[in-house]
């Protein structure tokens, strides 16, 4: 099986980047192949511009850089998104990647507004987020539910793509010996297990993991 791993972080020495590399290694060690997309390093342009509007209206094909990303996704049996939480969501760079790449006509088709066609039912999604705030803060303010609604349902369910997991790796700020990379390696080793864990957005501290 083949995974596309997309990471959004400006610093390749960051924890987010380490998590992405650990996940890629463990997926490969489990006998699968990986394509690694570092959006910052590859200088993906997240701006939704006139050419994207034309494509959205189905007046012209998607821009070449968008098409290249769609081709990466077409080669993948699973998509893994790894991101630091910025303002209770994904970073703008990753959001822009979704804005542009998950385009009308490719990810879904709304030509008939009474019946949106969901076109990504074949693409399981795995999200791994690194938050700065504590699990308590997320629960107290409802941020976990808000992220699940906006990202899992609002984006991926709209396209029919099943969200297998959406993990928040609490504990990076605590420096309490949490083996985050160990958790990530076990996610990678089981990425293509036939019986994926039920859809979840785990308040995942190592204490629970
Ligand atoms: C612009 C910005 C916005 C942030 N917003 C949030 C936030 O809304 N919630 C949160 O838990 N952490 C937030 N953080 C903290 C980051 O999520 C945290 O620093 C990051 O996950 C640490 O991972 P890293 O070491 O890979 O950068 C924010 C950080 C930045 C730079």
Structural shape: globular
Describe the strand arrangement of the main beta sheet, using strand numbers.
2-1-3-6-7-8
The arrangement of helices and strands along the chain is EHEHHEHEEEHHEHE
Q: pLDDT below 50 for ≥5 consecutive residues: which ranges?
A: 205-209
Mean pLDDT: 92
Q: Any idea what the CATH superfamily is called?
A: Flavodoxin domain
CATH class: Alpha Beta
Output the CATH topology: Rossmann fold
What is the number of beta strands?
A: 8
Second CATH tier, the architecture = 3-Layer(aba) Sandwich
Bound molecules: flavin mononucleotide
Helical percent range? Answer: 25-40%
Sheet having the most strands: 6 strands, parallel
Overall SS class: alpha/beta
User: What's the alpha carbon Rg, rounded to whole Å?
Assistant: 17 Å
Organism: Pelagerythrobacter marensis
Family: Belongs to the NAD(P)H dehydrogenase (quinone) family.
Protein name: NAD(P)H-dependent oxidoreductase
InterPro entries: Flavodoxin_fold, Flavoprotein-like_sf, NAD(P)H_dehydrogenase_qn
């Amino acid at each position: 099986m083949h995974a596309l791993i997309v990471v959004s972080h400006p610093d390749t020495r960051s924890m987010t980047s380490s998590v992405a590399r650990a996940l890629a290694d463990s997926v490969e060690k489990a006998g699968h192949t990986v394509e690694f997309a570092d959006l910052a390093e590859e200088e993906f342009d997240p701006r939704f511009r006139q050419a994207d509007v034309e494509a959205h209206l189905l007046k012209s094909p998607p821009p070449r850089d968008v098409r290249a990303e769609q081709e990466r996704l077409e080669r993948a049996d699973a998509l893994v998104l790894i991101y630091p939480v910025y303002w209770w969501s994904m970073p703008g760079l990753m959001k822009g990647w979704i804005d542009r790449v998950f385009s009308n006509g490719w990810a879904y088709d709304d030509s008939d507004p009474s019946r949106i066609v969901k076109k990504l039912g074949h693409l399981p999604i795995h999200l791994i987020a690194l938050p700065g705030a504590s699990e308590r803060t997320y629960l107290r303010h409802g941020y976990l539910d808000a992220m699940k609604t906006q990202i899992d349902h609002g984006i991926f369910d709209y396209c029919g793509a099943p969200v297998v997991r959406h993990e928040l790796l609490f504990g990076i700020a605590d420096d309490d010996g949490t083996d985050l990379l160990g958790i990530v390696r076990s996610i990678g080793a089981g990425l293509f297990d036939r019986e994926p864990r039920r859809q979840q957005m785990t308040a995942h501290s190592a204490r629970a993991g």
